[in-house]
Amino acid sequence: MKFSRLSLLVLLLFVLAAATTVLAARTPPLLDPTVALTLRWLFLAALAWMAVQRRSLTFWIVVSMFVGAEIGNDYPALAVNLKVLSDIFLRLVKTIIAPLVFATLVVGIAGHADLKQVGRMGIKALVYFEVVTTFALFIGLAAINLSKAGMGINRSGIAADMEQLQTVEQSTSDIILHIFPENIAKSVANGEVLQVVVFAIIFAIGLAMVHQKHRQPLLSVTESLSEVMFKFTNVVMYFAPIGVGGAIAYTVGKMGFGPLLNAFQLLLTLYAALIVFVLLVLLPVALIARLPIKRIVLAIAEPVSIAFATTSSEAALPRAMEAMESVGVPRRIVAFVMPTGYSFNLDGTTLYLSLAAVFVAQAAGVDLTFGQQLVMVFTLMLTSKGVAGVPRASLVILLATVASFNLPAWPVFIILGIDALMDMARTAVNVAGNCLASAVVARWEGEFIDNYVAPDPVIDLAETDSALAQPVH
User: Fold this and answer.
1) 270 and 346 inside one domain
2) At what angle do helices 83-110 and 331-344 cross, to 10 degrees?
3) Which of 147, 204, 435, 469 is disulfide-compatible with 269, CB 3.0–4.6 A?
4) What separation in angstroms does the CA of 199 have from each of 105, 185, 194, 226?
């Protein structure tokens, strides 16, 4: 792997800053703390210049995390006042959730009104999606309750700034009744995400049942709204580095570096849970379906790698569809199962959301019962349907849902600092899960071709000669 001079400079400054900080922190100090402070800020300046060169929003979020942590450590009085930046970002995110969830769910359900024509295959695919994502949800819950990554954060510095976080005692009837909206405008205004989801699902079913001439205009409007909200989210996410920087500065200024250590513990928990999910769920499913595991692994290696590197499921979709056709899944099944799975079969995202939601509760010191955890993560699983294409979609969903369960937002910003690393793994698992789903449905339908040999590409020699004759740029 080749490194640019700027990358090597940043790495060198990081090592020097870390070494001098350790020496200056000794008792008695072995180095003047001013030297360590200067080297840390030089490292941050070089890192920011690298971000300017790369023009990557994800990289800017990482830079903002480092800068925010440094400001919180060096200037805690100033850092406390930067909380307003994270509050602005939080308000902007909250404006997204209701129209985004409503539009994407309506388009996802009513837009697939042809499921009646697809019939048996559609039902089997949806049943498979929900069973596998439910396994992902429970593995995520088990992992975070075992690792307790959010436990142990000292909240004394922010207790006075937060609302009362005691969970409200509710009967089973109250919880069930609270799921259903009585006034959709009130549900939107109060941020009741699950009520918006229920309204959107019933609305979409009603829309799918009406005649085409009545359904199509409204479907076009909701599809346009969905696309606009995608762009709206893109615009809001440009403010993410500033919001994250302010949140991290405030957190470190109030509580020190403890929460960041918990965040890395969460990162390790996620990777371990995803490995367990692949080995204990996806692999047995492939074995039960009698699929050629080696061929499938080799075929999906490229699209999964693309998803891991780009953190985008959509970037890997065309290659993933080609890969599954090459191992014997008929094109009509691939064309139906994989795009539908991108809305309804987000294995990695579901597992991540269950981890993150309970992490927020643990960090806030709120002791949720297993039943309360289930209600929260099932809400997250429902609201995440259809929004996989939105950058940082999980952040939008997570922030809105934890707020509706009377949990604070500051632990979410801690998660966002390492979200890029988490996003890589969960996106790769999303793509792998959808590839496997298409093969499973094909086998279930009795249409998987075991000895399929992909046809060699047809090469036009005249076109090839013409291309070779072109000058190389």
Assistant:
1) yes
2) 140
3) 147
4) 10, 11, 9, 16
The two three-digit tokens of residue 190, written as one number: 């109060």
Per residue in 222-277, pLDDT (tens digit) is 889 878 887 887 788 788 788 878 877 887 787 677 667 788 888 899 999 999 99
* Number of structural domains in the chain: 2
Q: Contact, 325 vs 334, CB < 8 A? A: yes
pTM of the model: 0.66
- Condensed to tens digits (0 to 9), the pLDDT of residues 437-463 reads 989 988 888 888 877 665 544 444 444
Which CATH number belongs to the domain containing residue 367 in this structure?
1.10.3860.10
Other Cβ atoms less than 10 A from the Cβ of 170: the count is 13
Q: Which two tokens stand for residue 422?
A: 């988490």
Q: Are 416 and 244 contacting, i.e. CB atoms less than 8 angstroms apart?
A: yes
Write the CA distances from 83 to 45, 72, 134, 244, integer angstroms. Answer: 23, 11, 36, 10
CA distances from 24 to 16, 37, 359, 403 (A): 12, 9, 33, 41
In which domain, by residue range, is 41 found? 1-55
**99: in domain:** yes
